[in-house]
Amino acid sequence: MSRSCAVPVFPFLSRCNMALRRVLALAAALGRRSCCSKPPLPPDFVEALRAVVGTPNVSTATAVREQHGHDESMHPCAPPDAVVWPQAVGQVQELAALCHHRRVPMVPFGTGTGLEGGVNAVQGGVCFDLSRMDAIAELSLEDFSVTVEPGVTRKALNKHLRGTGLWFPVDPGADASLCGMAATGASGTNAVRYGTMRPNVLNLRVVLPDGRLLHTAGPGRQPRKRAAGYDLTSLFVGSEGTLGFLTQATLRLHPLPEATAVTIASFPGVGAAVACTVQVLQAAVPVARIEFLDEVMADACSRFSGMGLPVAATLLLEVHGSRCSLAEQQQQMEEIVQQNGGSSLAWAEGLEEREQLWSMRHNAWYAALALRPGCQGYSTDVCVPISRLPDVVVETKQDLQASSLTGPMVGHVGDGNFHCILVFNSQDPEEAQRIHAFTQRLGRRALAAGGTCTGEHGVGLGKRALLQEELGQEGLDTLRSIKAALDPHNLMNPGKVL
Amino acid sequence: MSRSCAVPVFPFLSRCNMALRRVLALAAALGRRSCCSKPPLPPDFVEALRAVVGTPNVSTATAVREQHGHDESMHPCAPPDAVVWPQAVGQVQELAALCHHRRVPMVPFGTGTGLEGGVNAVQGGVCFDLSRMDAIAELSLEDFSVTVEPGVTRKALNKHLRGTGLWFPVDPGADASLCGMAATGASGTNAVRYGTMRPNVLNLRVVLPDGRLLHTAGPGRQPRKRAAGYDLTSLFVGSEGTLGFLTQATLRLHPLPEATAVTIASFPGVGAAVACTVQVLQAAVPVARIEFLDEVMADACSRFSGMGLPVAATLLLEVHGSRCSLAEQQQQMEEIVQQNGGSSLAWAEGLEEREQLWSMRHNAWYAALALRPGCQGYSTDVCVPISRLPDVVVETKQDLQASSLTGPMVGHVGDGNFHCILVFNSQDPEEAQRIHAFTQRLGRRALAAGGTCTGEHGVGLGKRALLQEELGQEGLDTLRSIKAALDPHNLMNPGKVL
């Protein structure tokens, strides 16, 4: 317990209940103070914060700070010194200017649903909780675009869009804030057809570390394409809060499909399921979702949801389109499934029926946790070229077995991205050690296969070493040059990514 | 003629035949030397270049330098001091290190088909002609990816891909090099369905200004998506040679459509044609191309190709898909065309018939020039949100008329991107002045409509002032910070973009 959570020696050791979290947070704060020799925020600085946003919108209460010191990952809680709730972009600018002037670290906070410790305030400072800036502005049905503030979540946006014939398809699972999804470079189940966050963000309004306001595509602009200077939008998407605050995002919307159908297909093995995926893509079937579950996960999900599915490598396949094109896609899919020795259920087309099938997938996390009641979960996130996916998946399964670990697999297999949901006893240091070693091996296996250590969760705290291996020294040096150019005092979410 | 072409006072004044070009180049070189006080390259430096690539691969001949001192734009020729032809990436690194050490400007050169003066050596220095590095490597049919060197053009790649069932769809018209297209952030007719260069580049091998080698997504990597650090690939796509040399690009390929069909539709006015476009997109018809021609351009193209089309606002519509989905798309399109008061020809499905229709569009440049024989052409490149397109197009047509200018319009209207092909007498300073004033007004009109001054041609030399208006001071400062971080001595293609 004397370990500083600001410098996590071992990130998986201490998934904790709230009481334990608090103790760790305290130790962390003490450890951070002692190791970094940073003084707590002086009272006049806290007063200055209050002068900007009003007293009720600043908190230094322990419980509030702890609540903002972690996301949904295993990284130990690292609370900020204060939490502020700005209500408008001008306030974010003023607060940033204040912090910049006093060289106080700043950490953006959305919904806290990240998976790599992106919000943990490992160097203390001020957490900017942007959830109260939640306006949905400038919906343009003709331009298929909408502008949202950081408090707007993807579900809130899609609810707002009901009846317009448009939707925002990027779906990482959690009901994350859209600006947080942009900051993470999130994607999810629909990315194979609709892309990740990057191609779906048209413009970002960013508060820079010194409080200046940047519009990445220029103020008020939203052309569908541009070739005007370096692509600042793509630079800030996936920057994980290390370059500035995303205080508004202009997003590309998509027409709602006329019809949707889902099926579940079972295969004799992982190789067959992945081969089926490649053939679906090669046949140019405009598949909307191809989600993979290995036989352990399929079994867990089936039991958790009471669906009675075969214990087999499984694909969930969803198609979108007009009625006529849907029928054609379904026929093509069925043929490809059969060619790969698979068999599929009848297609579910009604909303309720489809949601029932997807709820099985959406509950994968809990189904995995149910395999070892009382244990904790951690999700890996590698992504490899599709041709290498069968080998990487098979080797990873062998590794899990050899390491005596529970880690059922799910994956956005159309993109080559898969997760092992590792379920382990966080109170057992030896098992935690095995988990750590396994995740490092998995990351390196993905790199060796020409892939990445993170397809959609980001680097955050836990993948900084792997990032260096992935990019090489020149790549990392280039990232550092950019970071130093845009945040010369390393005040924005310090300790993350780099 | 005494004007320095290194600092073009007026970029449209001097579209010249080759003899005139040479005179201008000479004046430019003299002007540059006198105004910038830069000495010519010392002989020992030229010897050092020869030592790297061999004597036949270095030239300081006037004709060669002039040939490399311009692209297809109106910007006056600005020849480099020497041209080198590296044969391998190691040579590019050595040459860059040499130039870096001696603080000599470097200009990357592909096919010279750019439209904004991107290759003009306005500060002299060494032109790196990368056309002899033309290997196509690592074609992966399973991963839908290929790696190409900078000498490979899009047509050469698609020829190489024949019989594989895959293709690379980005088509800016010219048979440009793929690395040059990446450097420009090119797009073209297929972008509405397949995207611009940015989402179609998976990795870039870049020689940095000091000769170090960077792989933007890490060495040898090509996952379909990643969330590992800032997106360096997107940063270098569209950087117009100002951050480094693109010496290899890994590209995303697409499955060839089973069937293709094209039609031409005529409308009562521009508004109806654009409204049709918006409805096609809203109906989620996965249209592959929607190209717009105003009535002047339709008439010019019709006469040039002898097709006898109506003199009317016109759309060329292309659909890709399976036979069944094609029939459905065609029916949807026809309904939408009729709803907007348009009428369309029978669909062309055979290759020859389709190519005949497209040749009309591809010859638009020459058809426009034929409107005023002996005159020169210049293409504008604004892109606006689709909802604003009718107004912007109508105002632009009125402006053309009020300015007594010939400027038929073509456009990738599904993206809101359109070009006026301005045809003018470059020997008439007064007309050139009107052209200049018109292009500035058009740029500002696009900006006022929430658009960009360049959808796909890039900033180059001519749009630097408009870029500042588009991005605002903070945006420009951010671009400058990035440029200074990655090229602190401003050696890479100086004078472009910023």
Automatic annotation (TrEMBL), chains A, B:
Record InterPro entries: FAD-bd_oxidored_4_C (IPR004113), FAD-bd_PCMH (IPR016166), FAD-bd_PCMH-like_sf (IPR036318), FAD-bd_PCMH_sub2 (IPR016169), FAD-linked_Oxase-like_C (IPR016164), Oxid_FAD_bind_N (IPR006094), Vanillyl_alc_oxidase_C-sub2 (IPR016171)
Family recorded in the similarity comment: Belongs to the FAD-binding oxidoreductase/transferase type 4 family.
Documented EC number(s): 1.1.2.4
Quaternary structure note: Interacts with CSRP3.
GO BP terms, alphabetized: lactate catabolic process
Co-factor(s): FAD
Keyword annotations from UniProtKB, A to Z: Acetylation, FAD, Flavoprotein, Mitochondrion, Oxidoreductase, Transit peptide
Oxidoreductase found in the keyword field: yes
Subcellular location: Mitochondrion
Chief location category: mitochondrion
Domain FAD-binding PCMH-type, residue spans: 76-256
GO cellular component, one term: mitochondrion
Top-level taxon of origin: Eukaryota
Task performed by this protein: Involved in D-lactate, but not L-lactate catabolic process.
Originating organism: Lonchura striata (white-rumped munia)
A GO molecular-function descriptor: D-lactate dehydrogenase (cytochrome) activity
Reaction it catalyzes: (R)-lactate + 2 Fe(III)-[cytochrome c] = 2 Fe(II)-[cytochrome c] + pyruvate + 2 H(+)
Protein's name in the database: Probable D-lactate dehydrogenase, mitochondrial
